[in-house]
Amino acid sequence: MRRRLALLLGVLLFAGLAGLAAADQRFTVVKIDLRKERLELFLRDDAGVPFKRFDRLDAWLKERGRQLGFAMNAGMYHEDFSPVGLLVRGGREESPLNLADGAGNFFLKPNGVFLVSDAGPRVVESSEYPALAKGVRLATQSGPLLLRRGVVHPAFIPHSDSRKIRNGVGVIGHTAIFVISDVPVNFHEFALYFRDVLHCRDALYLDGTVSALHSPSLHRSDFVRELGPILGVASP
Fold this sequence. Notes:
NAGPA, disordered N terminus, 3 helices, Phosphodiester glycosidase domain-containing protein, signal, alpha+beta, five-stranded antiparallel β-sheet, 16% helix
């Protein structure tokens, strides 16, 4: 109950702080204070089968006396649902950092890593990660970076007609800020929302088209497509 209440309060706090900027209803925001809540990464069950969906993950957790209070897709993945880049769960690296060049959003450099350590959450450029890897208990790599030290990704086009439902994560102090657009937006609009409304200096794009949110407090559990890695908060 405490965790579900904290998540709801995070949403209400956002509504109060953002004021009229939130009234356009283009985005849903969930703030997770990692001093109070434990964020986890989920991918496969005990038999090695990918969860793929929020309801399957929730059912698996309930069998263990836990409940999924928040979840969001955690980055890009291959056809077998394995991550394209870095994945660290429980302090163990399960998929290595990917610094290769290639086609698609993941490889639109600079890309980045969302990580959680004892020092709190961070979004960093991917090549910076190895120097920070010690003590990281959770990390997922995706791309492109939306913001790096307050600067919008140089490849973003302000009036681009490439509009999709998108989701991403930013950080302020010990708080991870998860955002999903409720209408199609372009990269530039999405980045500006993190910077100018939420006041994040660093933010990472997680995905588009497959973007989904699970939040019982918001009476919402999306299903668009089957998912790879999932970020979530579960009680107890």
